[in-house]
């Protein structure tokens, strides 16, 4: 089945996505982007250079762009920068955004104490979950989402096998693998993820 909002989701590479909705453009974690639109809203999950990339942000920002991010990333940004934390619920331009946790459970790159971010964005009554840099975490079972954007490359985030378990916990209608093909991981991780979920969940491997 083709969920209508999938047509409005563009993978920018790595963990970056562009979503068009309500005549607005939302961008999440742009990094080494080559094809992009100016963004009305930019969401930054955490301060690592491949997520809070100021040169890439400057390519897509406008004087009226609104940023939502955590406190460390906010120090690198200027303009309408709004610091948020897991548990916050936001509404901007008719778009609802729930801020959720993202952290490692068996490695030290993304400590839970940092309060780094994932986002659940509600557009046209469909919920899109961008997991951020995370492992398989207990909170995922409480995210009722339609489309899950999940890291699959391992090393710093979930492996593809762990991302499969995340899908089984979240139970989305569709999933899109991310966080591969740049710093770590390859399309093989995405393909493995998709094959493991055949018959359980629609998986779209997007081209950059």
Compact overview of the structure:
The chain is an alpha/beta fold. It has four helices and 13 strands.
The end-to-end distance, rounded to whole angstroms, is 22 Å
- What is the number of domains? 1
Strand order of the largest sheet: 7-8-9-10-11-12-13
Largest sheet: number of strands, sense, barrel closure: 7 strands, mixed
Q: Briefly, what CATH class? A: Alpha Beta
Walk me through this protein's architecture:
The protein is of the alpha/beta class. The chain has one domain: Metallo-beta-lactamase, Chain A. It is built from 4 helices and 13 strands. It has a 7-stranded mixed β-sheet with strand order 7-8-9-10-11-12-13. The longest helix is centred in the C-terminal third of the chain and has 11 residues, at 160-170. The protein is globular, with a radius of gyration of 15 Å.
Question: Topology of this structure?
Answer:
Elements (H helix, E strand, L loop, with lengths): L8 E5 L2 E6 L2 E5 L12 E3 L10 H7 L5 E4 L1 H4 L5 E4 L5 E4 L2 E7 L15 E7 L2 E5 L16 E5 L8 H11 L3 E5 L8 H10 L5 E2 L5
Parallel strand pairs: 3-4, 4-5, 5-6, 10-11, 11-12, 12-13
Antiparallel strand pairs: 1-2, 2-3, 7-8, 8-9, 9-10
Provide the descriptors you would attach to this structure in a database record.
single chain, 208 residues, alpha/beta, Metallo-beta-lactamase, Chain A
